[in-house]
Amino acid sequence: MTKMPGGCPVCHEKLTIRSLYCPVCKVKLEGEFELPKLLSLTPEQMEFVEIFLRSRGNIKVVERELGISYPTVRAKLEEVIARLGYDVEPHDRTDASDVLASLEKGEVTVEEAIRRLQKEV
Predict the structure, then answer these.
(1) CA torsion 61→66→70→75, rounded to 10°?
(2) Tell me: the pLDDT tens digits for 51-72?
(3) C-alpha distances in Å from residue 3, one per residue of 18, 42, 46, 117
């Protein structure tokens, strides 16, 4: 069985289901059915959500499993929240430990880390 796409492969808009089929009793339902919100996620977003849920929302575990920094995990989480149609509150404040972690992993230069830390104050 093929996985259902999260959106139109051409224009990336939400899809509408036109029929449902039961392979056991062979009943077929036709109409226009709305996709559940979670099925509107891209395959990458769905993978992120699965890892996030499997780790019970522990961002440190998600960081380790995906090999990304805390700010990247937060950005991916906010992207998923927005895709599901919910408001994302701005997260302007940068945590010093996030900046230092990004610096340690080589994700930012020393100059960029200093800039972010000065912006925090």
Answers:
(1) -120
(2) 999 999 998 899 999 998 888 8
(3) 16, 12, 12, 44
- Both tokens of residue 110? 């020393």
Look at residues 91, 85, 77, 70 and name the one whose alpha carbon lies nearest to residue 37. 85
SS3 11: coil
Instruction: For residue 86, give Cα distances in angstroms to 6, 7, 43, 82, 105.
Output: 17, 18, 19, 5, 31
Helix pair 110-120, 96-104: axis angle to 10 deg: 180
For the entire predicted model, the pTM comes to: 0.58
